[in-house]
Amino acid sequence: MTATTLTLTLPDDWHVHLRSGELLKAVLPFSAQHFGRAIVMPNLQPPVVKTADAQAYRAEIAAALPENSHFQPLMTLYLTEQTDPNDVKQGFLNGDVTAVKLYPAGATTNSAAGVKNLEAVYPVLEVMESIGMPLLVHGEVVDPEVDIFDREAVFIEKKLQPIRARFPKLKVVFEHLTTKDGVDYVQSCEQYTAATITPHHLVINRNAMLVGGIKPHYYCLPVAKRELHRLALVEAATSGDARFFLGTDSAPHLDHAKQSACGCAGIFNVANTLSIVAQVFENNHALSHLERFVSLNGALFYGLPVNQAQLVLERQLEPLPVPESLSLSQGTLTLFDPLMPVYWAVKQVITP
Ligand code: DOR
Ligand code: ZN
To answer: Ligand 1: which atom is nearest the Cα of residue 43?
Structure first.
């Protein structure tokens, strides 16, 4: 007999793209409704590279928040070969910046300014290691000779292992893990390495994107892999292992940008993430570990207190309806359809 309500510590989202301008205003309320905090990705155009940019972006987010919201955006800097270690250090020590994001140049949306030569950023990594500031990595190589389905595994060997060896106490979050290779790697590491896992990589494999027609709303980076990888991700997430936690990687693009001859990568999922993740945990008889994955493990790794507020999920008798697209002034935004029955609905947030 399954529980019909679940009361959890309010979850956090350890990886989200909130965008800016009108799109920010449209998507932010969904994050603010279900999450206490979120690690906000810096890949705006132009990217958030300095502490001053992060302060300005945080102010834009604060101004777009619904009234009385307690949602706290945790800001990140976009690592470039010009990043000043002192600016990073000051930003972290002042509480303006929580982490630094490494995008290999060209790996994904707005990553052209990313890092080509890792050694050029070693002075920044050295400072981060000394102050306990996490490095968040987009773990894919960009070498055109490497098959897109192998890019994560090759990244581990060619890029991540050298960073780990050189900076053994640097906190590293391997973002949006998509492979068994990634799971095995994180499990082989000690306390300084963790990983985020998205709701979509827990429920789809590459067939969702490619079978029966090309489905742009299932295209994201890193791309979903084969089923054996999805199963490894589910096992890691539901195991309760403190090294794995939720990062939605919600990355909204309007439909016209996705449904195109060269469609953008990204899945918009924050509105139904917690319903989907709860269902995955129920289906795997692991509801007792749900709170660790969505609310506890991330805070522990980042060294932050867990949220005081709570979130109540309620199991419905009928599956939730397939999510509807949002009509925004600039176009339509499609919400992730997990392609499976989902019974868990968010009922309320209880603030202390
Ligand atoms: O699918 C993705 N979309 N992956 C990323 O790494 C970036 C993101 C975006 O910003 O659209
Ligand atoms: Zn992302």
So the answer is: 10
